Amino acid sequence: MRRLLVLILAAGCDSPAPALQDAYVPLDAPAREGAGPGGGLLPALAFAVVGDTRPANLDDTAGYPTDIIRELWREVAGEQPRPLFAVTTGDYIFASTSGAEVDPQYDLYLAARGEYDGIVYPAMGNHECNGYTASNCGPGGTTGSPPNYTKFITRFLSPIGEARPYYIERFAASDGSWSAKLVFVAANAWTAAQAAWLDTVLGEPTTYTFVVRHEQHDADTAPGVGPSATILAKHPLTMLIVGHSHTYRHVPAYREIIVGNGGAPLTSAVNYGYVLVTRQPDGTIAVSSREYMTRAEIDAFRVDADGVAAP
Amino acid sequence: MPMASRLLSLLAVVACKHDAAIDIDGELDEAAWNSRAQRAVFVDATGARARPYSELRMLREHGRVYIGLYAADQDIRSTDHFVLDTRAVHLLLGPTGAAVDLDGTLDKPVDEDEEWVVELALPEELVGTRIAVRRCDLPKQGGERCGSWAGELR
To answer: Domain A2-303 sits in which CATH superfamily?
Structure first.
C-alpha cells in the first residue's frame, strides 16, 4: 500500500515517474557499498563465473586440477575492470562420502580460489552430495547429509552468511539505476520448502534476474531440475547460469550459459576458461567467455534484461 | 570391434573378476588406482593436453596389468573407442563393452554427456613393457579431435 502511494505521488511530479523496480532497489539490497553477504550496492554490475573443478577420478586428490584452477582465478583477478564478485557453478570435489578426501580437496580448491580476493557465491553441485546426478542431500533428502554436503555448507556458505544451499543475493546500483538478484538453486537438495522459497524470491521485482543452478536444463535426473524449471517459467529471467557439463556453451533457447570448464576433465574441444558478465551503459547484459592462459574471447553475446538477444 | 579383440578383452575381465585388489567393473574406485597406478594424460599432435580429455592408468600387480581408460565426452556414441596396443594385443575398447562405467546417454546427441570409463586386466606377458593408446572423438562442434599416449609401463 505504501509503495503504491509513492508511485502515485511521483507520477504527479515533473520528473519521470520511477519504475516499480526503482522503488525496490535501495530498500531491499543491503545498504552497503560493495558485494558482501546478502549482496550490496555496486557502481556497476560486473561479475565472473567459474565452474566445475573436480578431478576425473573418485578420491583422486593427487590428481586434483589445482594448477588450472589457480591460474583461472588469477586471470579473473587480473581482468580490467575487475569483477566485483564471482559465482561458481558447483562440483568442487570428487570424493567418496565415507572417505577422507573431502576436506583435502576442498582445501585445494579454496586455496586456489584465493587468487581472487573478491567475494564468491557458490552453487551446490551433485558432487557436494554423493556424486550422483540423481542424489538429493540435506534435510528431507533421500541421500542424507554426507560430509561432502555438510562441509560445503560450513566451508563455502557459512563464510558468506548462508546456512542453506539455496539462497538469494540482492544487488542494486549505487545510483539506483538498476537492481539485480542472483538466485542460487540447489537441485541436489531439493525440497518442497525450496520450491516455495524459489517461487517467492523470483517474484521479487528487479531489473535483472540471474539464476545459478549446477545442472543444465537437460540434466533432468537431478531432483530439482524439472521442478525449478517449472517455477522459473513463471517469472522473469535474464540468464540461467549452470555447469555440470565440462565445457562452455550458450543455449539461447533456455537463456542458459553452461560454464563447466573450470578445471574438470573437458568434454569437448572448448578449453578451460571462465565467463565475464557485465551490464552495459545501454542496460544490456554482455557475456564474454574467456580462454585459459590466453584470455582470448571464445564467445560473446548480449541480452536484454528479459534474456532475449540484444541487437 | 574385431571378434578376437572382444574375446580377449572378455577373457581378461573374467579372469580377474574375483581379484581381491581390483574389481573389474568400470569404476576406478579402489584406492590403488589413485595411490599406486601409473597415470598418463593424452596429448594432441602439438603436445598439448588433448581436448576432450582422456587419461590412462596402469597398474602391474599379481601377474596382470590393470588398465583404466577415462574419456570425457559430451556426446557418447556406440562407435566411440580407444585403440590400445601392447606387445601382443590390439584392442578396440568402447563404451558398450563389459566393465564400462558410462555417465551419460548413449547415442543421444541432444543432451550433454559427461564421461565413460573402461577397466580391464591383461596377463602381464601380453603387455610387455610398452603401451600405446589413442582416442579420436567427434565433438558436437564438428571435426575430429584425437589424443594419444605411448610410453613405458613401469
So the answer is: Metallo-dependent phosphatases (3.60.21.10)
* Closest residue, chain B, to A57 (C-alpha): B28
Chain B hits for A89, CB-CB cut-off 8 Å, are none
Specify whether the CB–CB gap between A69 and A272 falls below 8 A. Answer: no
Q: Do A57 and B34 touch (CB under 8 A)?
A: yes
Task: Tell me the per-residue pLDDT of A151-200, one tens digit each, with 9 for 90 and over.
Answer: 999 999 999 999 999 999 999 999 999 999 999 999 999 999 999 999 99
And the C-alpha cell for A149?
A: 554436503
- Interface probe with A: pick from B28, B103, B112, most Cβ of A within 10 Å: B112
What distance in Å separates the CA atoms of residue A96 and residue B29, rounded to the nearest whole number? 9
Q: Does A217 touch chain B (CB under 8 A)?
A: no
Quick: pLDDT tens for B43-59.
999 999 999 999 999 99
> What is the per-residue DSSP string for B24-92?
-SS---SHHHHHT-EEEE-B-TTSSBPSS-EEEEEEEETTEEEEEEEEE-SS--TT--EEEE-SS-EEE
Question: What predicted TM-score, i.e. pTM, was given to this entire model?
Answer: 0.90
Q: Residue B99 and residue B115: Cα distance in Å, rounded?
A: 14
Length of chain B in terms of residues written? 154
ipTM: 0.87
